Amino acid sequence: MTLPRLRRGDQLLFLGIMILMVTVIFLLFYALLWKAGNLTDLPNLRIGFYNFCLWNEGTGSLQCYQFPELEALGVPRVGLALARLGVYGALVLTLFVPLPLLLGWCNSNRGEWQLAVGFLAMSSMLLAGGLGLFLTCTWQWVRLSFQGPGFLALGIAQALLILLLMATAVFPQRAEKDKSKLESC
Ligand SMILES: *[C@@H]1O[C@H](CO)[C@@H](O)[C@H](O)[C@H]1NC(C)=O
Q1: What Pfam families does the database record attribute to this sequence (predicted)?
Q2: What is the mean pLDDT of residues 21-47?
Q3: Number of domains in the chain
Q4: Which of 96, 98, 121, 170 is least surrounded, with the fewest CB atoms within 10 Å of its CB?
């Protein structure tokens, strides 16, 4: 009587993990590719991984800066490059999570599952590192406003990645109790 219920619970948990994973990939795609890495999107301030535009009082318009000038403004070139590497690396790594997750679940294979958890952990660390570095480099402008769909998407993606990391780490212990995983795929 209790076994079928447990299996159904596991299936729902696995389904939830997969849905969250797809959501994370979608959020990262949205912020980094569709929005082209633009994080703050205000009429007088546009800051992103590839754009840096501040309000120019003199001309009364938005002025975008490129690298030699950006460094003069106090944004380190290496810092921004590493931040880009981190967040786009996180996007790439998340793409490698769903397949081993699915294989690990279908084959009851702990190794494949652990591989997925490893990709998840690396991707979470890269995103946190990249985002943290970006905020450190651009804090004096960004602190004025976090308004922007890009920021929101990356923030939610980071929170979900941590949640997924916890869920996938405790999942095998739960699933271990029930060995008939093959039936579930
Ligand atoms: C990103 O910001 C730049 C600079 O403001 C703008 O020219 C570009 O159109 C924006 N891209 C997207 C996809 O919003």
Answers
A1: TM140 (PF14985)
A2: 91
A3: 1
A4: 170
